[in-house]
Amino acid sequence: MADGTSAASIADMGRVTSVVLGLVLSSPVFGQLSCSAANYGPSCGPTLSATFQPLGSHQRIVFQMTGGYPDSVHGQLIIGLINPNYPIPGTSCFLLTDWYFGHGFAWQEGTAVVTHSWPNEVIGLLRFQAFAFRLSGQGVELMGSNGVAATCLLP
């Protein structure tokens, strides 16, 4: 190479960097994230809260939802990155996270619990919001929870 380094020495530096980075990432200090969840924004019915529980090489995040329709069985938990704070037309609800990913869940008499794994490699902030749906004489009715901002950072 023009600067006097050989391809072999660059490969050796890469292997050393990989080993050092692997040791740092697998160290007990790096492996223990500091995680928290904070509610934000208005609800037009249900309340969403979240707690973290350390579990081996990841965190378990537990979502507790209350105040949904007592006769609703259909719910949606959406996961996003930003808070658009956008009013949902025809309701008193607001969209409190953009839709990056979502999945359904079942309400039981207006409450639900959903758990997810949060790998220790995921550092940063995600936003969550829950919705309840039900069919009525007017069509589909919708209620949206407050938002939850969940953050995991290195200590």
Entry summary:
By secondary structure, this protein is mainly beta. It is built from two helices and ten strands, in the order H-H-E-E-E-E-E-E-E-E-E-E. Strands 1-10-9-4-7 form a five-stranded antiparallel beta sheet, with no helix packed on it.
Describe this structure as you would to a colleague:
- There is one protein chain.
- The chain is mainly β and 155 residues long.
- Helices cover 15% and strands 50% of the residues.
- The chain has helices at 7-25, 28-31, and strands at residues 34-40, 47-55, 58-66, 74-80, 86-87, 94-95, 101-106, 112-119, 124-136, 139-153.
- Strand 2 (47-55) and strand 3 form a beta hairpin.
- It has two helices and ten strands, in the order H-H-E-E-E-E-E-E-E-E-E-E.
- The longest helix has 19 residues, at 7-25.
- The strands form three sheets. It has a five-stranded antiparallel β-sheet, with no helix packed on it.
Give the topology, please:
Layout: H1 7-25, H2 28-31, E1 34-40, E2 47-55, E3 58-66, E4 74-80, E5 86-87, E6 94-95, E7 101-106, E8 112-119, E9 124-136, E10 139-153
Antiparallel strand pairs: 1-10, 2-3, 3-8, 4-7, 4-9, 5-6, 9-10
Classify the secondary structure makeup into a structural class.
mainly beta
Are there runs of 5+ residues with pLDDT below 50, and where? 7-29
Indicate the radius of gyration in whole angstroms. Answer: 22 Å
The beta-strand count equals: 10
What is the topology, as strand order, of the major beta sheet? 1-10-9-4-7
Overall shape: it is globular
| Number of distinct helices | 2
Question: What is the share of helical residues?
Answer: 10-25%
* C-alpha termini separation: 41 Å
